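Illustration 12: Cellular retinoic acid-binding protein 1.
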Amino acid sequence: MVEQFVGTWKLTASENFDEYMKAIGVGFATRQVGNMAKPNLVINVDDAGLITMRSESTFKTKEIQFKLDEEFDENTADDRNTKTIITFENGKLVQKQTWDGKSTTLEREIQDGKLTAKCIMGDVVAMRTYEKEA
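Figure caption equivalent — predicted structure in token form:
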């Protein structure tokens, strides 16, 4: 159920994220900011099944709204324009972004009360861990 993802989540750990940003083509200056940012992830679902996912940091706030299994246009925090589809598979929110002949996948799941985001680009994998704010 998507409802388990609803809430405000604070980034507490980030592994290999710089390598992931490099792999998707993020420039050095943007990576510096990306590595310093400790975003909160705010997830809501309305009665019509529209999901809002907002990443809030001191540098940038980015929000996407989507319905599961429906492709939409996304302008990412690092300014890529992607075709994005988010599905719910085996308890995970799976976000697939495609742009310029490339694609990346972000798998979000709840483990031990924490939200993990696994960012995959080819053979590069980053893991970001969020804890729910009270």
